[in-house]
Amino acid sequence: MKFYIKKALDFITTLFLxxxxxxxxxxxxxxxxxLAILGPEADSAQVQALESKMGxxxxxxxxxxxxxxxxxxxxxxxxxxxxxSVSKLIGGSxxxxxxxALVTLIFTVFIGYFFGFFYAYIRKSALCKPLMSIQxxxxxxxxxxxxxxxxxxxxxxxxxxxxxxYVPISEDFFSWLHSLALPALSLALGSGAILARYTTTSxxxxxxxxxxxxxxxxxxxxxxxxxRHILRNALLPSVTTLGLIMVExxxxxxxxxxxxxLPGIGRLIASSIQTRDFPLIQGLVLYLxxxxxxxxxxxxxxxxxxxxxxxxxxxxxxxxxxxxx
Length: 325
What we know:
With 325 residues, the protein is an all-alpha fold. Helices cover 78% and strands 0% of the residues.
């Protein structure tokens, strides 16, 4: 229990420090937000009135406390560009990015684990090297190049999928899946190749361990050795890789979302940077930090579930007297 409490406290502390750093960095940037909104022709009275409304006449410490207090309540301020609540803008875009992430995750897990196990199985075959070379190509090709190739083949030539746009799942499930198939596949081919590579390496490494040779010497079938001994330990490195992939996808794929005109976090990030929309950028940085920390926390918990030895070490660390008895 102490381990999980410590992880939760680390989560809160890190998020607080990131919010502090993010806020003060943006406060040091040159320019007057009120003047940027009203334009250079605005008189001083209008600028002062807007500054007072935005709280810019307060000290930097007061502004931070006001901002972080609002963030805790779910209020991240108002976007300069859209004149809407930052929380609502992020929430609306998050549903699109989360949808893309879920479909991408399914594709990535299928591609990564299927080919990872397959490459490990045929490692002595003549087909292994050519197939590994193809995997290396997908590993190296940028996702936007994959996206353009998929659009050319499946949208332009075959007309099977739309080139852009997004259909909410609440309207129609199959239309939702249809609109996300190509964007998700564009991301999953690269991330799946990475996952497959780590999975293959991990499986081959575990297969050489002494405990695997012992299990085989006891007369256990190869399928049983793989299922009971190799797979569980081989999954640990791939879980870390999968966590990093999820952070990248949930953070918003700026290029892919713009290529397919998906109104997700990626497009919102690009738009906020182009227009210097500081409240929106601050909210997005906090969102990205939250997603990264949450995924790392989830990976730590998954580790303890997949490998009981980790849970045992945690228990012994929390109860040193009981462990030594």
